[in-house]
Amino acid sequence: METVSVIVPVYKVEKHIEVTIRSVLQQTYQNFELIIVDDGSPDRSVEICQEFDDPRIKIIRQENRGANAARNEGIRQSKGTYIAFLDGDDLWLADKLRQHVEHLKQSPEVGVSFSRSAFIDEEGSPMGIYQLPRLTDITIAHLLCRNPISNGSCAVIRRQVFEDIKFQDDVYGTTQDFYWDERLQGSQDLDCWFRIALQTHWKMEGIPESLTLYRVNSSGISANLLKKQESWEQVIEKTRAYAPEVVAKWENPARAYHLRYLARRAVTLRDGAVATQLFHEAVRTHWRMVLEEPRRTVITGAASYLLRLLPRQFYSQLETAGLKATGATQKRRIQQDSV
After folding, report:
1. Is the pTM of this model over 0.85?
2. Which of these, 85, 89, 280, 312, is most buried using a 10 Å CB contact count?
3. Residues near 147 by Cβ (< 8 Å), separated by ≥ 6?
């Protein structure tokens, strides 16, 4: 029975980490090791983790270097055939690991197995909406433009995949193996998926069930969205160095779709000015997105304008009705795909 190494980076998540850890311990697939990486957290997060008495739990401490440095260290110290990441404020449904292990065993050509996700609010209540990425026949174009692996807690990955993309670097005074590129200022997850798609033979494939509960954190500020775009540009430049033909072909559409994604995030953060700015830039960059994905593009643009122009209370009423209708449609699709 294969072991899954579950890696949980921990930094300022004392409010949520207990339920996150419990969601791992309550998995129906019990052959796992749980590696908790304390990324120099200044709160009680690690103290809470220490209250769990389970021999499968291992706590690692490091200076604050960021979540991807924690993931790297977790991989270095892991032993599992499969590796899974869970952010310290997200949750898994109890059958998640079992379904992914079964998927990977039945599909030897698949290196990355991911699931759909349901959104929860900061208090853990369901928001009634889901992430419904493409599940099969995923190409580099899909990864560049829409990133089906939509959050850091939804994938279970073969160890061999990381062996195939690892590289050595001296970032902290000692040469080590790296898997996530810590020299990048952000978007390291995209860089990782791009390298898997372009430098290995492994396929990425999703399963239809919504098995990850992704917590929406509204504490971010819209200025961070512009930094996210800068980090995305940095990843594109890195990718251009080893796959110039691919970047040349897909750069503009990919940039536009990322700007549209950031516009939706700005709507979530209730910043209509930034949302409309990002939406305008997306359409200017690749206007064909209106034809390629008319529904999503029109909804993003409409939400951006309405948020900026309407009184907040009226907008909130429209948003509630829209999310309810969207959630019902998404739930029906998940049910149909899961049959």
Report:
1. yes
2. 85
3. 133, 190, 193
